[in-house]
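Q: I have two molecules that I believe assemble together. Could you output structure tokens for the complex as a whole instead of separate predictions?
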Amino acid sequence: MKGKQWYQTTDVVETYETKRFSQGGQLIDDREKRAVLDAIGPVGEKRVLEIACGTGRFTTLLAERGADIVGLDISSPMLREGRAKAVRAGVDSNIEFVRGDAARLPFPDDFFDTVFAMRFFHLADRPASFLAEMCRVSAEQVFFDTFNGRSTRSAYNWLLPMGSRLYGDSEVERLLAGAGLSLASAEHDFVLPYGLYRKLPNDLAADLRELDVALGETPVGDFLASVSYWNARVG
Amino acid sequence: MNESLLEIVCCPLDKHDLDLEVIQRTDEEIAEGRLVCTECGEEYPIEDGIPNLLPPDMRDG
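A: Yes, here they are, computed for all two components at once.
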């Protein structure tokens, strides 16, 4: 089953966060949230669009920090979960959720200050058209992550139920240029793959993460990283 | 959805403005209704307070 269908099944939505972000997965959640805040914060008063917002992990995070944010996803069950989360966090007045297609966004040109997508491009069958569309509706910034082809993730990638597309640096650079974006900064992390952290209890995961960060700081760290965060400017 | 979203969203097909037809309104928001493209006339449903702006060819996925 491909990602588009897999993420829309209700039992996947119900267990989405507990499967990924409890135990050692908490470290992944923390790192991803830091990546988003580092790249696009401070967000007060900013108009932000999140593509493939899923259960709204980042949508709510940014609304809590004052962003005027729209979360778009293809999946109704995910969006309902996102709305419930926003209500619980008391930020539903500055979040809107919209069901839509990332390749044909229902927004005018240059409307948002920042458009971002996390864990989206590994599911994207047409990354060039998605990135061009993100660029079209953004006036300033586009931010996204990729999973990397040369990394440890490739060892188990073929086992994943949602299918997963892996990228190389030069491919991302070509995609950015093709969409009319220029790279402002990039970060590379997780020499050890996400799948490993999810299996571990907190203490062990924290120890492993220390080792991972140390490996990441060696000369081969960036090369072996399984995840990259790409911060690009429009134009 | 809040009525203010109308200032942001447009038709995913031709990017023209949308008109709002309310079916059910609660204190805070529009729970059920339709968004209709002022140009091509395509209708997009609002379901459980979430506008479905998927292009028609993807709507029943």
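A: One point stands out. Chain A has one domain: 3-234.
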